[in-house]
Design a protein that fits this description.
Rossmann fold, four-stranded mixed sheet, seven-stranded parallel sheet, alpha/beta, 11 strands, globular, 382 residues
């Protein structure tokens, strides 16, 4: 079991749940970070007593520095604060709960310090999976997934090296399952963030509605488990009870089930290979109100998922372009600047226009990321 942790993105949905799990387990929190949610960050800092708080927004960092002046807690400002939090001494595990490609650099630096990575930032592997996994192997750093689906796969595959035939990646289908593009035209941000099963942040909730999130998870699974696109099958599972499954070479299928509570995969990433009692509810099969169902995805109604799988097959910078374009588009949608269907339209336009080049180094990935952001901003400024 880990001794102490650093939480990148402690004020977000996953970060807040990580704080609760850490307190339940009695773990020491050495560092926390936020973008600009300094009121919550101050509350967490006073409760957890970390050595440092990182605030990526410089102006907010100055405010928090004043607020914590009566403590010995250091406050770092700017994006480099994420790296400082990721490599802080004594923390043997880094929970990467930040959203977006901003998590890439601190994750790589933590890997080089041989920290365990409790990976909740899927964009790290979407954008630079080959580089990250290669560096982890080279440095001897553990990567333990926090996403419920990847945690399920990880648990099902533990001790089964060489036995995998196919990953069965499940997803609820989101709040608009079965809706046509015509029906989703008028979807509002308020509707999109109301996920039927999970409590999540706004951005990931929109990604779950469009099923882009499942596409990102598809790419993440390829890198985490060293499989090809043909070895992953996506299944729509509305009840969110089976978090994912694996089919083994002899035809056996092993599934991981549980209540839809992110506290469970977060805790397992922190205690692996051990298990500890958790605060989560137990799954009571006698209380299930409907049968467990599974469907093949309708890719015509789920174009974001289809696009992500296409980018997974293309490789190179295509996933980075898609991810960055989606981040910008979702931000604009949440700000009521564009429509729901505009998310896919702008992202596929960016992918088609910018193409793909080999991801030989981090700089190439970062340049593709910025080019995609610029493209979508220009797309909507016409």
């Amino acid at each position: 079991m880990v001794r102490s942790i650093s939480i990148l993105g402690s004020t977000g949905s996953i970060g807040r749940q990580t704080v609760a799990v850490a307190e339940h387990l009695g773990l020491r929190v050495r560092a926390i970070t936020t973008n600009r949610s300094i009121q919550l960050a101050e509350e967490q800092a006073r409760r957890l007593h970390p050595a440092m708080v990182g605030v990526t927004d410089e102006a907010a960092a100055k405010e928090l520095r004043v607020a914590l002046a009566d403590t010995d807690i250091k406050v770092w400002g700017g994006e480099h604060a994420l790296v400082e939090a990721a490599v802080i001494s004594e923390a043997d595990t880094v929970v990467t709960a930040v959203s977006g490609a901003v998590g890439l650099r601190p994750t790589l630096e933590a890997i080089r310090k041989q920290r365990r990575i409790a990976l909740a930032n899927k964009e790290t592997l979407v954008c630079a999976g080959e580089i990250v996994m290669r560096e982890a192997k080279k440095c001897g750093a553990e990567i333990v997934p926090v996403d419920s689906e990847h945690s399920a796969i990880f648990q099902c595959l533990t001790g089964r090296e060489g036995e995998l035939r196919k990953i069965l990646l499940t997803g609820s289908g989101g709040p608009f399952r079965g809706w046509t593009r015509e029906q989703t035209k008028a979807v509002t941000p308020e509707q999109a963030v109301r996920h039927p099963n999970w409590s999540m942040g706004a951005k990931i909730s929109v990604d779950s509605a469009t099923m882009m999130n499942k596409g990102l998870e598809f790419i993440e699974a390829m890198h985490l488990f060293s499989v090809t696109p043909d070895e992953i099958e996506v299944l729509i599972h509305p009840e969110s009870v089976v978090h994912s499954m694996v089919e083994l070479v002899d035809g056996t299928v092993i599934a991981q089930l549980g209540v839809p509570d992110m506290g469970l995969p977060i805790q397992y990433a922190l205690t692996y290979p051990d298990r500890k009692p958790s605060r989560s509810d137990r799954l009571d099969f006698t209380q299930l109100t409907r049968p467990l169902e599974f469907f093949a995805p309708d890719f015509e109604k789920l174009p974001c998922l289809a696009l992500a799988i296409r980018c997974a097959r293309t490789g190179g910078t295509a996933p980075s372009v898609m991810n960055a374009a989606n981040e910008v588009a979702v931000h604009k949608f949440l700000a009521h600047e564009i429509g729901y269907n505009d998310i896919y339209d702008s992202v596929v336009s960016a992918v088609d226009a910018l193409g793909s080049v080999p991801t030989d180094d981090l700089q190439t990935i970062l340049e593709a990321d910025q080019a995609a952001r610029d493209y979508v901003n220009q797309y909507f400024s016409k």
